């Protein structure tokens, strides 16, 4: 039996100031591969329609509704979400409740829905994995409920025991429409209540809304077929071939894929010399046809990059981007200072930034700014920074000065009296003057 595809698209979430662009490009990649896999499934496949459920300010359209079927609901206002610690993910259950209240489910021809997020890419056609009485969901290793959770269950879901709570969340999920309609209000109300409780908030942390869903399901007696092969997620060692051979349907690119240019994993918790990470593109689209991974990288890394490149290359309205590709993101304190004549001359100097004094290039790569600390170093040569030749035209090359979550390449005049900066991603130019 066919299902409808609903992507939870959280536009401009309170507290997520990058959400507009960040969610837009991901949803376009997702939709491209949804259409591709639906065609591969053919007329006998179970993939039905697609709805992008968008929580936006005032429920306003975002301009992509002509490309992707979309349903707009309002997100929580800044004042409303402030009560919940600006935990913007609460807009997920809130959006589903609004979708139900405004007749969204009745408008769907299908009797089942598949809920996904924007960073889910289908690897092959997805059949209907649910029944009218039983949903299907991914098995999350960090969602196992134990006896230590029982006091919270007694408080917020009396009658539920920890063994009733399955290790699932609301995405990826295949579920019948009547079951989801019944679940959504309790999913929302439990999530709100848990967030207001200091003990529950500390215990459930960033996955609190997922716990709101799993506890609500247990309270209402909704059971899931818990599937480890629903999706694959992981870091540099991820294998697409292995995933497909195990019957996996979704590539969830929640983690960055980080390598040295020699093809070795860069290491845990650090940006690679070659890097594919959705978080790089919070303010700008990924550019088309990014540089392939180095020899030795996992086949899963190559698969994901090809999925991005294929989608961006075939979407005619994909915008030109000033963001970097897969090389150049690794910029650590003091990088390249040794051996750089320009860095040696700049080290220890003080400057203004856009007329505001207080910018200091401390020895060793520590950057002091009026807006907090940062890092600086010598920008590597031979890297396409997508900066319109900004660094290539600098005789001594560029330094980088990164702070406030933004990356800047800096080009100095020969006498070190002034500099120009280029903010990677949007090309914003700021000038500085030497103070000491």
Automatic annotation (TrEMBL):
Among InterPro entries, the record links this protein to: HPAT-like, HPAT/SRGT1-like
Q: Does the keyword Glycosyltransferase apply?
A: yes
Q: Name one GO molecular function term.
A: glycosyltransferase activity
Query: How does this chain sit within the bilayer?
Result: Single-pass membrane protein
- Record's protein name: Hydroxyproline O-arabinosyltransferase-like domain-containing protein
| Hydroxyproline O-arabinosyltransferase-like domain boundaries | 20-319
Predominant location: membrane
**Entries under PANTHER family matching the protein:** HYDROXYPROLINE O-ARABINOSYLTRANSFERASE RDN1 (PTHR31485:SF4), PEPTIDYL SERINE ALPHA-GALACTOSYLTRANSFERASE (PTHR31485)
Keyword check for Protease, yes or no: no
Q: Where in the cell is it found?
A: Membrane
> Could you state one GO cellular component term attached to this entry?
membrane
Q: Which UniProt keywords apply?
A: Glycosyltransferase, Membrane, Transferase, Transmembrane, Transmembrane helix
